[in-house]
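Journal club prep — side note

Before the paper discussion, L.F. wants everyone to see what a predicted structure for a comparable chain looks like in token form. Sequence:
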Amino acid sequence: FEPLQHFIFFFSHSVALPNFSQPLAIKWLVVKHGDPANATCVACQKDCTENLFDLEKAQGEVRKNGTTLSWTIDRLTEWDMFIMCYYNTDDGDQCCSNLELTVYQPPESVSISFVNHTGPMFEHQQYRLQCSVQDVAPVQNLTVTFYRGTKALGHLQSNSEEKKAVNKTFTLDITASKDDDGALYWCEAKLELGSDGPQPPPVETTEKLTAAVYFLITITDGDTLHLNCSSVGNPSPTYTWTLPSDKASSYNGSVLTIKSVGFKHEGQYTCTVTNTAGTVTKEFDVDVQGEFCHVQIFTRK
């Protein structure tokens, strides 16, 4: 085909382009799946009254007004649609131009979870987070970001060239630390379609996933032990401690202190934190190691 020089695709929101001696830039139309759409092709703007011209399409209607071809569709349901406008010269040559059409579907839903893991994590162990995005297109324009609190942990994209809406899962490996205990993990799915797409880009976020991390504290027999259950709340919370063997404690502070740890102190300690908004608990498993006279403490929520 010869390069098209006097041939324009433009849309209802675009300004008309002047004639150029060089081929015109490709034009894009971004449409949500199921929405109406329209485009106009101006073919052979001068000295072409006897030329053959038309518009090829898979769906929709075409109306002609002189050398202007108007394409409309009430509901765009094809994911990969081909639209070409062309004219044939008296010499048998053909000039043509394609409308670059992107059909998109914002994410239907997004969820976050751990892969093959439930319950608390252990410090220094590796775990895999997965963010599952449902019914999105085109998936190559999707960016998924994992977060811990407000900190972005990674940005992921797909290499798929699939045009229709698909389900896609993205994964990120993390290594648990004691600082992650109580952290909120979540992910965000953003469909970025450029300046011709919806502004701001469609975004879906997941629920927050609260992490519980078991971590080990080793102290020497006879040392002072601190079990920290400090919490932030409004109104300020109250604290209740339950000692091993379900013995209630009269202590009501946020940090339980045992000045000299011994074998009699091993067992499970439960801290209950309460205010008018609700109640949470945190458990401390204290294990006294007799051979080396060490105390091991595992905490969990």
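L.F.'s comment for the group: The chain is about 0% helix and 50% strand. Keep this in mind when we get to the figures.
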